[in-house]
Structures are given as C-alpha cells and as structure tokens.
Amino acid sequence: MTKSLREIEQSIKLVDAVVYVLDARAPFSCINPAFSKIISGKPVVYALNKADTVPECELPAWIERLSVGGNAAVKLNSTASNAAKIISDKLKVLCADKIERKRLKGIRAVIRAMIIGVPNSGKSTLINNLCGKSKTVTGNKAGVTRGQQWVKVGEYLEVLDTPGTLYPKLDNTTVALNLAFIGSVRDEVVDTYELSLELIRRLTETGEGIEFRYGFSPSGSAADDLCEIARRRGFMLKGGQPDLERASYAVLDDFRKGRMGKIILEKAL
Ligand SMILES: Nc1nc2c(ncn2[C@@H]2O[C@H](COP(=O)(O)OP(=O)(O)OP(=O)(O)O)[C@@H](O)[C@H]2O)c(=O)[nH]1
Ligand SMILES: [Mg+2]
What we know:
- The protein is of the alpha/beta class.
- The protein has two domains: about 160 residues, Rossmann fold, CATH 3.40.50; about 70 residues, no CATH class.
- The protein has eleven helices and six strands.
- Strands 3-2-1-4-6-5 form a six-stranded mixed beta sheet, sandwiched between helices.
- Helix 2 links the parallel strand 1 and strand 2.
- The radius of gyration is 20 Å and the shape is elongated.
- The structure holds guanosine-5'-triphosphate and magnesium ion.
C-alpha cells in the first residue's frame, strides 16, 4: 500500500464524510478501487469536478449513477467563485444525524470531511474555493499536494486535503490512458509522444477536438496528424523537420486546458 493510501486509512476514523473528487471527463477512471474498502461506511459526496470542460448534457446521467446508497453527487467547477458551497450544503445533509444529535445536547456540530481523489482532479482547488481564499497549494500537474493538511472552513466545517492517490496496480489500459490524458499520471513516467498519438486516435474516433482546435480533419494516421499539428503551430526544428516533442506537449496541454472544446472521455451509460 502506498504511503498516501495508508495515511487515508488512518485518518478516515477522524471524519464524518468523504468528498470524492472526480474529473468529470473520466469519472469512472477516477474511482480508485483501493479506496472502496477504506471509505466504506462513510457517506460520500462525489464532486464531478472540472464540469466546465465537458458537455453539460453528459452530467445528469453521471449524477444519477453516483447518487446511490445514501451518497450524493454534484457537478462542480472549482475555479468559479463560491461554486463549492454546494459541497458544504450536501455534507450538512449527509451528516444530518450528527448535527441533530449534537443539537439535542445544545451544541452545534463540527463536520469533518476528507477530500480524496486521483492526482490533479482539483482537490486543493475545491478546498480553496470552499474557504474563499488560497489555503492549499494547487497546480496543473499530478502530485502537487505532498502531505495531508487540515483546513478550517468557517467554524463548523473542517476538511482534510490529501495527496492524490493512484491505483496500486493500473492494469486496465483504457483507465490508465484516461488518467494520463487528464494529467493524473506524472509526466515524467509517461511517453509524451505515444500518449499524444493515443489521444489523437481517441479524438479521431469521436470526431472531437482536432478540427476544432487545429482546423483540419484527422487523416486516420495519428503520427501524420501530429506532424501536421506541428507544422500548423509553427513548431519546426532547425533542419525544417516538425518538432514532434513540442507538438506532443501542446496536444496534451490543449486537451487538459479545455482548448479542444468540451469533451468527455467516459459516458455514464
Ligand atoms: N477547468 C477547471 N480546472 C480546474 C478545476 N478544478 C481545478 N482545476 C485545475 O486543475 C489543476 C489541478 O488542481 P489541484 O487543486 O492542484 O489538484 P489536486 O487534486 O489537489 O492535485 P494533487 O495535489 O496533485 O493531487 C489546477 O491547474 C487547477 O486550476 C475546475 O473545476 N475546472
Ligand atoms: Mg492538491
């Protein structure tokens, strides 16, 4: 078990509920089987985060699918001011029993929630949004948060930021690729060129992204299309060859920053 997973196992006893941050572009791939046992018994609010990067019409089916067994699911853009209030509202609903128990004793309950999710899903951004200020460090790459950190959100809510946790064993290729596309896998451990070709192939299947961003229809050969992207973006090496490394980074970055339009990789159906 990884260190961060072990820490989550230890801290779960201290919390009333879990906020499970999923990247709305690949919600299923973001559900880490290693978490299931650890968090079982705690109410969960699933946050379909980065909802601004996917077609709006795809979200209700995911919300319905995840809102089962006493859990809640909401769509969220954690970069939009005050958007995360819906998370604290849902936590109050899921922890109504504790709030009522305390109220009967004349005390106002403090709700403690743990924020979990794969790297780069937006956990720290969500916490900053809840607080209305930057109390945690965020960044557009995997592995920004290094250790757990309690953050007070007003007097009656405390949340625990955790480092992103990946599957202990990632043997499903589709899931592994989805996680790499959305930036959950550290760039140091992926082959950027191959990954960008896989992304071009995937987008070619659905006819999304490439024409929208680069202005040409994919040819069916991802390698040729990457050369074309390099040429169109002016990424050329000294000898007049296309700079494929730079083009690969640009393709992944464009996808991750939503510059290819609103795209979902996994539908709830
Ligand atoms: N478009 C969009 N970007 C978001 C959203 N939430 C977070 N981001 C961006 O996603 C990137 C990662 O955010 P973090 O909050 O650092 O992610 P994290 O889950 O804490 O990452 P680790 O600490 O590495 O596990 C940052 O560049 C954020 O600005 C969102 O709802 N929409
Ligand atoms: Mg973080």
